[in-house]
Amino acid sequence: MKPYFNFPFLLQFSVLFVQLYGGASSYGEALSKSIMFFEGQRSGFLPKDQRLNWRGNSGLGDGSADNVDLIGGYYDAGDNVKFGFPMAFTTTMLAWSVIEFGEMMPPAELRNALVAIHWGTDYLLKTVAEPDRIYVQVGDPVKDHNCWERPEDMDTDRTVYRVDAPNPASDVAGETAAALAAASMAFRSSDPGYSQTILTTAIKVFEFADTYRGAYSDNTDIRSGACPFYCDYDGYQASDELLWGAAWLARASDDVKYMSYIENNAKPLGADENIYEFGWENKHAGLNVLVSKQVLEGNVYALESYKASAESFICTLLPDSSSWHIEYSPGGLIYRPGGSNLQHSTAITFLMLVYANYLEASSSSVNCGNISVGPAYLRGLAKYQVDYILGENPKGMSYMVGYGNNYPQRIHHRGSSLPSVWNHPKPIQCKEGTIYFNSSDPNPNVLIGAIVGGPQEDDEYGDDRADSRKSEPTTYINAPFVGVLAFFNANPSLTQVSTPK
């Protein structure tokens, strides 16, 4: 079965779009704004160099309900809850973006990216500061979601959720270990002392994850807060996060025991299953791509099953392949069922570029049965996704806020949609914000760089604040896109779509 669009037509469409709307994407501008977005998601005491200055301090009592300091970190989306699971994944992806593409970033943007990572790791260190305990969430999501108020005004319960041994938290702890290990690599040259601190912590956190196996949402007291928002739904008992954490520790520490762990647990933990998912919940495709680097470099042939799974995943993305599986919209956007579709497009695009780099370094290609493709084609396919998100699409809309002349004005985001604390100093209580939620006016505060959930399978987008599936931004949509934009900023003239040979 083939997708219901054809690339020659899409290439003609993109040329026509450039003629009508005035040129190709400015990847440097988009890169800068994609990183700036994270400043709008900050919780805690904001620094003096805060660029999105309509934000103010918030969550300054976080953790007090449990007599612990949990100030800081990121709000995951348009609400005011701090969910540890997606925050850790966001941090991992920001770090991976720097590891793979940091050398392509302008120095100022590399610094900004490291600052964004640091904001995440500083908070994650707080969540694992006590032995055999991990704090996984701050804020009652049900009460929070029943209000429409600025983070600076929060008066809902800042309930603290934690997991103590021997209760399981392999998913959150495994992802936290991955985040700290990956970040240790990102900081290795600029801040070696901090790099070593977070790597040492990552090793301890992974031990907790591996010793007490299971999903954190299996704990009854956690489930009421995490679900249905960030449960571990994939049904694999957090095995992917264990392997993911071990893979990052193997790369960050060069300790052979983690390579042995990945090798010995491939079948027991399901790594050899062809699961074509990658995101905050399911790490399988990303894990396989990450581990494949070692195989392609000729270092660890025992991990060949990971490379085979990675290339099986890559083949599912290629419309000319007999293994094609991933859906595309009529306009050419990668589509996965469910809400917040652009989280899939940005994450999968990131993996395509990373794997293209690995192939190029090893002078390899991917054999998909009826076709064989190399780095150039994967980069061309990735470029199509990037340009679609930045405005070359049937709606002619940039799905990055503040980028281009036509972008979402009514995003599902409390801080953006309510008057700032500087323009409206008086607190806006829980239900007092409803009038702003229901308003058809554009958001008064531009959350620069935010990538919204975006269109679904029909390429349509209504710019409706109430339609959170399409109009809500998240940190884990943006994080992989940082690396993607760094690559194309350094390589802007690559052909957008090429035909497999």
From TrEMBL:
Catalytic residues identified in the record: H412
Signal peptide: 1-26
Annotated keywords: Carbohydrate metabolism, Cellulose degradation, Glycosidase, Hydrolase, Polysaccharide degradation, Signal
One Pfam family of this chain: Glyco_hydro_9
Disordered as annotated region, ranges: 453-472
This enzyme's EC code(s): 3.2.1.4
Comp. bias regions, Basic and acidic residues: 463-472
Entry annotated with the keyword DNA repair: no
Top-level EC class: hydrolase
Catalytic activity: Endohydrolysis of (1->4)-beta-D-glucosidic linkages in cellulose, lichenin and cereal beta-D-glucans
One GO BP: cellulose catabolic process
Superkingdom of the source species: Eukaryota
Domain Glycoside hydrolase family: 27-485
UniProt-recorded Gene Ontology molecular function terms: cellulase activity
Classification via InterPro entries: 6-hairpin_glycosidase_sf (IPR008928), 6hp_glycosidase-like_sf (IPR012341), Glyco_hydro_9 (IPR001701), Glyco_hydro_9_His_AS (IPR018221)
PANTHER family per record: ENDO-1,4-BETA-GLUCANASE
Family: Belongs to the glycosyl hydrolase 9 (cellulase E) family.
Protein name from the UniProt record: Endoglucanase
